[in-house]
């Protein structure tokens, strides 16, 4: 869940169900831009219904700003539903592809790190391994810290995607 005190800026995840139509993402980004809010990460993909997409959006702000963002998102025409993960348990994952220099003397160590973090090598070249890792932000940051001394050439990250947990019945 989001961390921080009520009046402090905190990282925050919104999940939006939107109509899968041209211009929807532009309107969402325009809302943030017009009000001077920053989008830290944004991930969009269709749902099981091809007419509906899910937007996972991460932003920062205090309680007042986050409430304003939520209200403004709900006003957008093509937005079907806004989920705010502040007060509910949720599952969050981030995906990263990391291209790391694979010198002969480092290859075994890289493969050990890949194994420990339950990630996998998805491409191999004479000089580089490309590794795929999924997990929460802390896991990915720890993984990157271990690979950094070996020489990270490139990183591509999705940012978090999230879904609320189902309520457990006792």
Keywords:
alpha+beta, Alpha-Beta Plaits, 170 residues, disordered N terminus, 4 helices, 9 strands, four-stranded antiparallel sheet
Distance between the termini: 22 Å
The total tally of domains equals: 2
Order of helices and strands: EHEEHEEHEEHEE
Number of helices in the DSSP assignment: 4
> Per CATH, what is the topology of the largest domain?
Alpha-Beta Plaits
CATH architecture name of the largest domain:
2-Layer Sandwich
Task: Give the helix/strand class.
Answer: alpha+beta
Specify the CATH class of the largest domain.
Alpha Beta
Shape: elongated
Q: Could you name the CATH homologous superfamily of the largest domain? A: ACT domain
Helix content: 25-40%
Describe this structure in words.
Helix content is 26%, strand content 41%. Mean pLDDT is 91; it is low at 1-6. It has 2 domains: 10-88, ACT domain (Alpha-Beta Plaits, 2-Layer Sandwich); 91-164, Alpha-Beta Plaits (2-Layer Sandwich), CATH 3.30.70. 20% of the residues are buried. A hairpin with a 5-residue loop joins strand 2 (39-46) and strand 3 (52-61). It has helices at 24-34, 63-75, 107-116, 137-147; strands at residues 10-19, 39-46, 52-61, 79-84, 90-101, 120-124, 128-135, 152-157, 161-164. Strands 5, 6, 7, 8 and 9 form a 5-stranded antiparallel sheet that branches. Strands 2-3-1-4 form a 4-stranded antiparallel sheet, with helices on one face. The protein starts with 9 loop residues before the first strand and ends in a 6-residue tail after the last strand. It is α+β, with helices and mostly antiparallel strands and 170 residues long.
């Amino acid at each position: 869940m989001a961390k921080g005190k009520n009046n402090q800026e905190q990282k925050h995840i919104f999940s939006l169900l939107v109509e899968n139509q041209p211009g929807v993402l532009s309107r969402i980004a325009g809302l943030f831009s017009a009000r001077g809010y920053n989008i830290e990460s944004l991930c969009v993909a269709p749902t099981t219904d091809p007419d509906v997409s899910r937007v996972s959006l991460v932003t920062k702000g205090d309680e007042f700003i986050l409430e304003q963002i939520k209200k403004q998102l709900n006003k957008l025409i093509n937005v079907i539903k806004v989920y705010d993960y502040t007060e509910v348990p949720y599952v969050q994952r981030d995906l990263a592809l990391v291209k790391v220099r694979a010198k002969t003397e480092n290859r075994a160590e890289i493969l050990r790190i890949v194994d420990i973090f339950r990630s996998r090598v998805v491409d191999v070249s004479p000089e580089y391994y490309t590794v795929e890792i999924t997990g929460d932000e802390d896991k990915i940051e720890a993984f990157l810290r271990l690979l950094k001394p070996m020489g990270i050439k490139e990183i591509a990250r999705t940012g978090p995607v999230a879904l609320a947990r189902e309520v457990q019945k006792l």
